[in-house]
Structure formats: structure tokens, C-alpha cells
Design a protein that fits this description.
- Helices cover 73% and strands 0% of the residues.
- The chain has one domain.
- By secondary structure, it is mainly α.
- Helix 5 packs across helix 7.
- It has nine helices and no strands.
């Protein structure tokens, strides 16, 4: 619902923009899907090899049994067509380029304008997570650290979008970062938060 309101009312109707203008381009979808599957597959290969070295065998990650197939698939879909898609459209597809264009009169130098748009848009991306972090019971110190990390990830996603010109590629990477969905039992240092760290290192 939030995604529909953002895209349908705020961006397309009131902003008078097209889906193309915010990076939602139909013929880019196949490349985005291929990237996401390849990216996920590469991560699984790393986990399978590390698990083989540590345990002496390749076996299914226990989370697939404890949480269940439906939960794991639902987790991915919630990111692909929900959270990750919403945030990429809002902060990379819409806010970043619009800030760049709006700053044209105030900042003539293109690289300075680009940097300003990058910092402001990704600061907004990070700050938007504050209510969620408070709800999760984080301390102010933990929130401050988390916001810094979110800003860095936002910058990485923006650069990825800028370099690939494919928002669906970034949605795929964002999805894997939020929901790594590791298929195989991996070495302890790559388990838990290590799964997400691996994804970000691969980005």
C-alpha cells in the first residue's frame, strides 16, 4: 500500500513523472533477475565451500528446517516486492536524481552537485530508519552506529544504480543484503550477521 501511494500519487501524479523517470523500466527487469540469481548463487557457492571446509560436508542450512520453506520464501518476496523495492524507488530512483536536478541553479559544478545530491538523499534514507530502530529497542549509541552503516550502504546502492542504470539490479542486491536466505550450512564466522556482511563485501 505504501509503495502504491508513493509511486502512484506522490511521484507519478503530483510529481508528474513517468515510471521511466524513477528507474522502473520494464526491459531492465530480465537483467535485474539474472543479476540477482547470479549474485545469490555466488554467495551460496561461498557458503557451501566454507561449510565443506569447516564441517567436512555440504548440508542444508538449519534455518530452512526451523523456520520453514514458506517463511524463507515470504521473507524474500517481502523484500523484492516490498521494502527493498520501495526504498530503491524512493531514495535511488526518485530522490537522488531529483535533488541533483533541483540543485542545478544553486550548484553549477556537476560533481559538487552530484555529491550534494548523494549525501542528502542517502542521509534521508538512513534517517528514515530511526523509528524502526527505536521500536527494536536499540540504544542511542547503537542507532547512531546503525545510521552510519545505513548511509554507507545507501551510497553503495546509489553508485551501483548510477553505474548500471538498472534499478532492478540494485533491488536484487538490496534484497540479498536484507534477506541473504543462505541455502547451505556455512562456517560460523559467515553465519548470522556474517551472511549479510558477505553480501555487502560482494557488492
Amino acid at each position: 500500500l505504501l509503495l502504491a501511494l508513493l509511486v502512484g500519487i506522490v511521484i507519478l501524479r503530483r510529481g508528474r513523472l513517468r515510471l521511466y523517470d524513477i528507474g522502473v523500466i520494464g526491459h531492465h527487469l530480465p537483467a535485474g533477475i539474472l543479476f540477482t540469481l547470479s549474485f545469490w548463487g555466488a554467495a551460496q557457492a561461498v557458503h557451501a565451500i566454507s561449510g565443506l571446509i569447516h564441517y567436512g560436508e555440504i548440508r542444508l542450512s538449519p534455518v530452512w528446517e526451523s523456520l520453514g520453506l514458506n517463511f524463507m520464501i515470504g521473507q524474500i518476496l517481502a523484500q523484492l516486492i516490498g521494502n527493498a523495492l520501495f526504498e530503491e524507488i524512493a531514495y535511488r530512483g526518485f530522490l537522488f536524481p531529483q535533488l541533483y536536478l533541483k540543485a542545478e541553479e544553486q550548484i553549477r559544478h556537476p560533481w559538487r552537485r552530484l555529491l550534494t545530491a548523494l549525501v542528502l538523499s542517502q542521509a534521508a534514507f538512513a534517517l528514515a530508519h530511526i523509528p524502526n530502530r527505536i521500536y527494536r529497542g536499540m540504544t542511542p549509541e547503537m542507532i547512531a552506529l546503525d545510521l552510519g552503516l545505513l548511509f554507507v550502504w545507501g551510497v553503495c546502492y546509489t553508485i551501483m544504480y548510477w553505474r548500471t542504470d538498472n534499478l532492478f539490479v540494485v533491488v536484487g542486491a538490496h534484497t540479498m543484503g536484507n534477506a541473504p536466505t543462505t541455502l547451505f550450512a556455512t562456517a560460523p564466522f559467515l553465519a548470522g550477521d556474517g551472511e549479510t556482511v558477505l553480501i555487502y563485501l560482494m557488492i
